[in-house]
Amino acid sequence: MSTYLGVDIGGTNVCYGISNADGEILYENSFKTDSFKTADELVSKIHSDLKRKQPLAGIGIGAPSVNERTQCIEFAPNLNWGDIVPIQKIFQEKFDIETVAVNDANAAAIGEKTYGDAPEMKNFGVITLGTGIGLGLYINNEVVIGANGLAGELGHSIIRPDGRECKCGNLGCLETYIAKEGIVRTAKEKLEFSSGGSLLNNISPSELSPTEIFKAARKEDPVALEVVDLVTKDLAFAISNLVNILDLECVFLTGGIAKNGNLLKRKTEKHLKTLILPNLRDKSFIKISSINDKNSGVLGAIASIHSKVGILLS
Ligand SMILES: [Zn+2]
To answer: Model-level pTM?
Structure first.
């Protein structure tokens, strides 16, 4: 039986798992990303953890800011391992097996197509909502890579020209409002001007997280509801632009923030209603990824290598 290693490198956690070709996870583990000063340290740690679990048929890596043509992580604003990190080369040399690196959002899209709800879909997007905001796109049944291997940086589309400073150097990028830090920042700004009756005041500022904010919104906390309303409105703007330009049949939401499932979906749908062009309104929908709870990042990375090596093996 062929087994594959999938590695999902995020701004907060590195998760990895071994699965068979059907996407059944046989082993998984995770580390905090900032516990490694370099990518080499991370790869050595994973290698020693998996020593007894080899042989593997291949490794798939999903990471932010991967240039799929160079197979390097390039200028990732949410990672501190240097400007250019040859991530595929480091893994391949250490493990000495076929390795592929893909943009984490593309990995999520490939995972959705292989193991999720999109096997029949030819035009769809997967938005990853976490430390950053990414987009994996299938157009005409193919993943969009772009001219330079860098397509899908939805998080850095500018929604407020004079808005918040982004780690990429621009002002007003989408992810400064709807990624993890952006949501918490909005909540802190709103709390400063609230009368003090919010449930969020009971949480220390360093503990405040999107999960806590969505939890308070479910209890009808007015400040939390206002934050969720702003976040879902910005998300709806981004989705409507995608759908109106690309005529997508579905946009999947995945990542840590998408674990707030129904509330996130319901509020985003409410804002979307008027933003999507009338002739596309009933033909496109949003969905929380059904593989999100099963670690879609790892599954996506596995699907990426399986689609490459699996064909060679079969
Ligand atoms: Zn940016």
So the answer is: 0.89
